[in-house]
Amino acid sequence: MPEEQKKTGKQRQPAQGERPKRAKGPAEKRSEKKAKQRREDELLLAETSGEETNYVGDKMSERDFSPVRSSREYRSGCLGGLMFFVFIVCVSVVFAALAWMAASDTLALNKETFTATVTLPASAFETKTVAAYDKEGNQTGTERVTVADIDYVASALKEAGLIEYKWLFSTFCKMTNADGKIDPGSYELRSSYDYRALVNHMRVGAGASETVLVTLPEGFTMRQMFKRLEENGVCKAEDLMEAAATYQYNYSFLEGVEPGEATRLEGYLFPETYEFYVGMQASSTINKFLTQFHYVWNADLQAAADARGMTIQEVLTVASMIEKEAAVDVANGVDERARVAAVIYNRLNAGMSLGLESTLLYLYPDHEGPTTSEMLNTESPYNTIRYPGLPPTPICNPGLDAIKAALYPETTGEYYFTLDEATGQHRFFTNAAEFNAFVATQSYGQ
Based on C-alpha coordinates, what's the Rg of the chain? Predict the structure, then answer.
């Protein structure tokens, strides 16, 4: 700045005829800077004999003006990124394929339509004792539940061609607690069923279960009934005996009949022709008998029992002995049931032992032929030859006619009856002398 301007602080005014200086713009300043740099470079070249050199002092060449090449690390990074991208794509494709295969099996997509029969035996199930809860979530006790061996179920479905992946079906069942929703039995299942439908159709009464008609005649014992059910594929006799002993059935006529021995239900298994599911759960099988008895034991029968001062079990016990002892030939007009009932009540009222071999034979279900002396000396309340009163339980499962005979017996003065070998019917007597005299004429009395 001119000295005068510094002292006065005022800008110098241009002299007359002198053009004022114009302020330089940014572009002009950059242009001047580049020009200055060229002059410095020319001066440097003059000092170095006019030869250009690079940053290491060598003579400049075309290479010094070429673009700098990409480093090896840069090239490696690009290749690695590309390979990682390809890997991610491949893994995604694999997972997508697996997901589609799993979904196709789970949802039964694109499957050939067919029907297959799958049988789940009772041996593929386990009975467990678990806690029981009410609707509010409070524990009320324990209950027995039956759960399926899911590995067995998955194998059976795989073998039938209904599923492809056993592990996937097993996982589905574990996530949905399906092991407690499947019942033993034989089921007709369609390939179009997804996993949920397969589980829902492997239940008794779901519409896919195979059924069988089984006739249980009057006078069959519990063991005989259970054996026939097992022979028809309904349920194992062993499982039925366990259910009869331990399962809690809620019927008013079983009030006071507590779990413990299977014989507690003897007499209550009403004989009839039933339709059962193949592989049916034991407790459900027995429940069919009890449900039928519930309908048979009506208000009229209860009133008749009350009039006689008898409990339901006492009526059934008398009826079971009538069923075993009385000869019945409806075609020929023979029906001894009410008359046999009269003899039983006459002897009970007189304080006599009933003297019936049928009650003793109940203790020996596999015995064939006449009773032995050892059997006659058995110390048991079922031995009504030695001990007075009724046996502890019914000795078979009586039909309705025998029950009615127990409630509506004939009125007679007879205390004895025995088989007449010539007719196959019974002869009835009012005194022991006549009875013994007739027995002496029969082969079994010799």
Answer: 51
Q: What span, in angstroms and rounded, lies between the C-alpha atoms of 372 and 138?
A: 57
Is residue 354 very low, low, confident or very high in pLDDT (cuts 50, 70, 90)? Answer: very high
Tokens of 426: 């019974």
Q: Minimal CA–CA distance to 219: which of 302, 139, 295, 327?
A: 327
The one-letter amino acid code at 290 reads L
72: how many CB neighbours lie within 10 A of its CB? Answer: 8
The reply to whether 335 and 435 lie within a common domain is: yes
Q: Tell whether 402 and 315 lie within a shared domain.
A: yes
Distance separating alpha carbons of residues 417 and 363, to the nearest angstrom: 22
Both 332 and 427 in one domain: the answer is yes
**Number of domains within the chain:** 3
Is residue 351 located within the same domain as residue 407?
A: yes
List C-alpha distances in Å: 168 to 102, 151, 171, 193, 201: 8, 11, 5, 15, 18
CA dist 70 → 62, 73, 76, 78, 193 (Å): 18, 8, 10, 11, 61
- Per-residue pLDDT of 272-303, as tens digits, reads 999 998 888 889 899 999 999 999 999 999 99
Q: Is the pLDDT of residue 6 over 50?
A: no
In a domain, residue 91? The reply is no
> Domain span at residue 282?
221-296
Same domain, 323 and 425: yes
- The pTM score is 0.63
CA 351, CA 17: separation in Å to the nearest integer? 165
Q: Tell me if 16 is assigned to some domain.
A: no
422 in the same domain as 392: yes
| Cα–Cα distance for residue pair 390/352, rounded to 1 Å | 11
Under 8 Å CB-to-CB from 314, ≥6 apart: which residues?
305, 390
